[in-house]
Each structure stands twice: as structure tokens, then as C-alpha cells.
Amino acid sequence: MDRLLRDPRAWGLMLAATLTIMSNATITPALPGLQARFADDPNADVLTRLLITAPSLMVAIIAPFAGVLTDRLGRRKPLLAGLLIYALAGTAGLYLNSLQAILVSRLILGIGVAFVMTAQAALIGDYFQGPVRGRLMGYQIAATNIGGLMFVTGAGYLAAIDPTWPFIIYGLALVMLPFLWVTLPEPTAAMTGHDPSADNPGQSERGWQVTVTIMAIAAALTFVVFYAVPTQLPYHLRGLGMRDPQNAGVAMASMMFAAAITSVVSGWIRPWLGRVGTPVTGYLLMAAGFGTVAAGHTLGLEMLGMALIGAGIGMCMPTFITTALNVTPARHRGLVSGLVTAAIFLGQFLSPLASQPLVTHLGYSGGFYVGAVGYVILAILLILILRRKPRQDQVVRTT
């Protein structure tokens, strides 16, 4: 057993990370039901899809400011405040009676997500360093996807009863609050690079700003394509004759299960693949997955394609944040965590705006084929841009 898993802080961070996948994808199986319930709204088709990505818009706007606050005020206060906002806004869909009101609640939910995700990412950089940090990021993405597997599968069953019931799941943030209060102490000034008397207070890799920028752009583009899955998959399956909302839940679960496995593996193989080889491998897996989803006509093939997509995102996601944290001075971890978080969620928000015109003109299968080509292009671009970077990340000591 990895000694890292004996650290209660690691478990607290992994638990907090499960909230990020819950913020958007949990209500995916409920989208067709919500659209039918509010069918009298002429914009129901667009508004229901925006319910998935609305939190992402607020995260993209708020996360950099949340990052600055976590650098100035500490990590715990933003984290715990974010949990409360998350629970209150996330469950609001249970009782709100219009798509517009639910959309507003989803925007407020994004504020909570921004504080939770930024603070917990900064804590990873504070508590751990070097290869341990990379392994924890892999475990965290695994926890995120295992949580997502349970949440989305459960949401599929709840949505079959009532399309508003999946909003209940957001209340789990309140259940997590006491455990996170105990297991995630405020880091010392030496850990965060604010103690000038400490040794090596915030060393960084030369040119870290450029590396962080590249990682942020790559993350944004990755999620522009990736989030066609939760926003378009339920409708794609209905077009194939699979109208039961549980089918979307099962397909999403296969993706999250595969992502959980590969994200753990990525922490161990990343030193060999490097900061370029790891995301490129992920892009090629996702390209294969999008192609399989586009070509498939049975639930089994759709699940296979989703599993390939999950395997790919499990390789990519830890790389973006780990690379950014590894090269950044300790005193700027909150800001950098916020910037990468903002990039990820900006990509999520823009995704339906990019994918909806494609599926309108090319159909759902055509849209997924375009996504496959997009990931091949991203792999090529990343190789060209970072081909002169070192094969392995420079380990940065910040404590």
C-alpha cells in the first residue's frame, strides 16, 4: 500500500475533489426529463444544456480571484465557505420552478466550486512535493471519477423517478464538511512560501509562467471537446433508440471508472512518459473514444467508447495541474491553481456553444467524429509546442 494513502490529509483532499465532478455531470441523466418538464419554455432545449455548464462560467470568472484570496487569507476559509455555497446552491433545483431560476442557482453553485477546487489544489502543493504530489493528483482524479461513477449512476435512477431528484446529491457537501474541517489543517507559512526565514521559500522552474500558460490553454481546449460528452450524449443515445435515462448514467459511469483507473496509473508512469507524452497519450485515447461513440449503435459500443474517453482524460487531467504546481513558486500556488481551474471550466462552459452548431449541421455522430479529429490535432500541437521541454518535470522544493 502506498504510504501516501495513510495520510488523512490525502483522503480529505480526495473527498473534496469528488465535488468537482458532481458540480456539472451529476444532472446529466436528468436533462431530457427537465426539458420535458419545462417544455412550455421556448428556450428549453438550450437552457437545459446550459444547466450542465453554467457553473463552469462562474468558475472561470471567479477562480483566479479565489486563488488570490487563498494566497492571502489562507486555504481553509475559502474551502469551507465554498462547501456551504456548494450545498445550498446545488440543492436549489429541488424546489425552484423555472429553468431560469435553476440556471441562476447553477451560477451560484459555480462560485462554491471555484473556492473548493482552487483551495484544495493549492493544499496539494502545500502538503506534498515532487513525485508524491503527482501520485496524489492521480489518486485525486481517481477519487473524482469514482465519486462521479456513483453520483451519475445514482442520478440516473433518481432521474427516472423525478428529473429534479438528482439535485439531492449536492447536499453531500454538508456531510463532508466535518471530516474536511478536521483533516485539512491550515498550512504553515513555510509551506506556502510566505516565511522569508524558511529554506527555499518558493523556488520555481525557470520560465514557469510560460509553462503554466501552456498547461492552462491545453486544459481549456481539452475540455471544450470533452464536455460534448455530458451535454450531448443523452440526446445521442435517445437518437439511437436508447431512451431510458439510466443508459446515459451507465455510459457515463463506464467513462468515470476508466478515468479512475488510468489517473492512478498516470501518477506512476508519468515520470517515464514525461509532461508531453502523458497528455499526448491521453489525447489519442480520447480520439479513439470519440470515434467509437460516433460509430457505435449499441449500448456496449457506446460504453467502450466512453471508457476510452475516460482513460484519456485520466491521463491528461493530472498532468495539467501537477505540471503547473511543480513549476510554480509556493507563494503563487493559489493564483496558479485558480488560473488552471478557470481554464478548465471556461472550456467546459464554451463546449455546448461549440458542439451544438456541429450536431445541428452534422448530427450527433458527426459532432463526435469532429471531436476525435480535434484531439488528434491537439496531440500534434502539444508535441510541436513542447518538444524542446525536458522529458521529466523538474522537482521543485517549496517547503
From TrEMBL:
Location of the protein in the cell: Cell membrane
Membrane topology, as annotated: Multi-pass membrane protein
The keyword Transferase appears for this protein: no
CDD domains the record matches: MFS_arabinose_efflux_permease_like
One GO cellular component term: plasma membrane
Pfam families reported for this sequence: MFS_1
UniProt cross-references to PANTHER family, sorted A to Z: CHLORAMPHENICOL EFFLUX PUMP RV0191, PURINE EFFLUX PUMP PBUE
Protein name in the entry: MFS transporter
Species, as recorded: Paracoccus amoyensis
